[in-house]
Automatic annotation (TrEMBL):
Compartments where found: Cytoplasm
Molecular function GO labels: DNA binding; DNA-directed RNA polymerase activity; zinc ion binding
Function: DNA-dependent RNA polymerase (RNAP) catalyzes the transcription of DNA into RNA using the four ribonucleoside triphosphates as substrates.
Textual note on the cofactor: Binds 1 zinc ion.
InterPro entries: RNA_pol_su_RPB10, RNA_pol_suN_Zn-BS, RPABC5/Rpb10
Protein name: DNA-directed RNA polymerase subunit Rpo10
Enzyme class: transferase
Oligomer status and interactors: Part of the RNA polymerase complex.
GO biological process: DNA-templated transcription
Gene: rpo10
Its EC number(s): 2.7.7.6
Species of provenance: Cenarchaeum symbiosum (strain A)
Cofactor(s) needed by this chain: Zn(2+)
Catalytic reactions of this protein: RNA(n) + a ribonucleoside 5'-triphosphate = RNA(n+1) + diphosphate
Highest classification ranks of the organism: Archaea, Nitrososphaerota, Candidatus Cenarchaeales, Candidatus Cenarchaeaceae, Candidatus Cenarchaeum
Length: 78
């Protein structure tokens, strides 16, 4: 995942908090309370973590489809 190192608006560091944020949210804690305990008080910094998504999980199906199509074309050419 590509988490921005700093907040786009205020420049505070946010990437160093992402690992703990993600693990605690997956464990069942409320995202707002986790951010409060991590010291992320500004809404601009909070949105950086709220809006981060696992982009690789969205890209993998397209990559696999391209590889499959490539193999199909190669087998047709042979």
């Amino acid at each position: 995942m590509l988490v921005p190192v700093r907040c786009f608006t205020c420049g505070n560091l946010v990437a160093d908090k992402f690992g703990e944020y993600k693990s605690r949210v997956e464990a069942g804690e409320a995202p707002g309370k986790v951010l409060d305990s991590l010291g992320m008080e500004r809404y601009c910094c909070r949105r950086m973590l709220f809006t981060s998504i696992e982009t690789i999980q969205q890209i993998i199906p397209f990559y696999e489809a391209v590889q499959k199509r490539y193999q199909e074309v190669q087998s047709e050419l042979e």
